[in-house]
Amino acid sequence: MKVVETIAAMKAERGKLAGSVGFVPTMGYLHEGHLALVRHARTETLTVIASIFVNPTQFGPQEDFATYPRDPERDLALLEKENVGVVFMPSAQEMYPQGFSSSVAVEGITERLEGKPRPGHFMGVTTVVAKLFNIVQPDRAYFGQKDAQQLAVIRKMVSDLNMNLEIVAVPTVREPDGLAMSSRNTHLSPEERKAAPVLWKALCLARGHWENGEKDAARLRQEMTTLIEREPFAQIEYVSVADPETLEELEKVDSQALVSLAVRIGGTRLIDNTMLGG
Ligand code: PAF
């Protein structure tokens, strides 16, 4: 496994590769969810390239950039075990040298859900992902379904800007009690960790009601809200039943819906989602 830190070295490694390339962009502190992306990429492409870069521009001033968990040595050992070909680990200075002044903005869907409390977040994501795609030149890039809005935004960017690669969605990997795997789960105290599966319980409750014939989106939101409010450690940021492409809130779930939520468990902000009818 080659580990490269500069854009020039990454491009040189890419130039040596023949055959299809799968790309897994990450912010490190890898868990089974990331490894599922790598394993999926390995089944579909000849060489897997992963990146580890905690992207400062997608964190707001009040967010957890400084405390975002990092463990590059462990990450590299895990990626090596998964037969990753190249790991790109640039510094912030390498990605955003002095005078950097460009950005990629996807409008509309970035203003809803995660975009509302996190202004600028998606512009940080689309800008760094566009840069990574240009540097790595993958045939396919792999993203977790857990960040459903990020996935929808990246698909829109790739389609709108005619980028020459395929975006592949990989199902969320969960702990045995249903909690979606996330690097941020390490911030949870033991009591908060016990409370955290309330997100998944709420999503399962909505799915159960929908499968029993409930089509009223407001009622589904209300059922989830009531359940989460019973958990003392939980504070809801949003509960949404939306169109999976536009992310506009639905009145009725006739065909597909993305049910998603953001909940603070103590000081840790967690998100999760499930797709109805798809
Ligand atoms: O999902 C993430 O870990 C990040 O948003 C990504 C896609 C690596 C961009 O920094």
Give a structural overview.
This protein has 278 residues and is α/β, with parallel strands linked by helices. It folds into two domains: 2-170, HUPs (Rossmann fold, 3-Layer(aba) Sandwich); 183-273, 2-Layer Sandwich (Pantoate--beta-alanine Ligase, Chain: A,domain 2), CATH 3.30.1300. Helices cover 36% and strands 20% of the residues. It has helices at residues 7-16, 32-44, 72-81, 92-95, 121-136, 148-160, 190-195, 198-211, 217-229; strands spanning 2-4, 21-26, 47-52, 86-88, 140-144, 166-170, 234-242, 257-265, 268-276. The strands form two sheets. A six-stranded parallel beta sheet has the order 1-4-3-2-5-6, with helices on both faces. Strand 2, helix 2 and strand 3 (47-52) form a beta-alpha-beta unit. Helix 5 (121-136) packs across helix 6 and helix 8 runs antiparallel to helix 9. The radius of gyration is 19 Å and the shape is globular. It starts with a strand and ends with a strand. Pantoate binds at residues 25-27, 55, 58, 125, 128-129, 147, 150.
